[in-house]
Amino acid sequence: MNDQRYYKRIIIKEKVESKYLGESRTAIIYLPPGYNELLTYPVVYCQDGEQFFNFGRIATQATRLILDENIEPMIIIGVEMKKNVRTSEYHPEGSRFPNYTRFFVEEFVPFVENRFPIRQEADQRTLAGDSLGGTVSLQLALDHPNRFRNILSLSGAFFEPSFVRIQAEQDLSWLTMYMVAGLDETAVQTDAGTFNFLEINRKTKKLLEEKKANIHYIERPGTHIWGFWQREIPDALRFFFGSIV
């Protein structure tokens, strides 16, 4: 990936003020090659935004796919994550979870969609997240199906609250979810203990399929790190944005 074309892209940073969080959060906005404000674009919202851009290299990978494989151009938005409150904001039982999700839905998304030509249909918005970022992405879609219908989950940290939430649904046929899990994620150490993320994701897949969700599930050799997830991003982007004929 040494072609300099892949590194010539527009990335903008904006501060989003939040009454729910009591502070501002940075939005990292990637505009695709050939960006034209007179057109409209699908969007990917990335939790752990800086990590998706810095470690996942999502902007570089998207640019390559748009230029070389003719996939549909998309706008990619990264949401700033604060490490000291990440778990409390992303975990469904976290103390800051209600405020974070209100910030995301009522403040963050309207802020960027009022400034950039993003399509407003729910199936044109993709929520992306790794580990607990996948958890909050799924929760946002389940709570707001009229807004979000596509999810990219990289080794999602799905625990009992997520299982209960899925089981409470009657019909998830509107939901499309691309799930990646590592075959070596059988003993992942977290702040809350050590967990078998491979089995967690297999269980989540089964529960979602029982509710008729559209699941594209991938297991490959890999551990709970960005070195694994970075390799999976191109296939995920191909899945959601395909090739333009």
From TrEMBL:
SUPFAM superfamilies per the UniProt record, alphabetical: alpha/beta-Hydrolases
Pfam families the record matches: Esterase (PF00756)
InterPro entries hit by this protein: AB_hydrolase_fold, Esterase-like, Mycobacterial_A85_antigen
Source species, domain of life: Bacteria
PANTHER family the record matches: ENTEROCHELIN ESTERASE-RELATED, IRON(III) ENTEROBACTIN ESTERASE
Name of protein: Enterochelin esterase
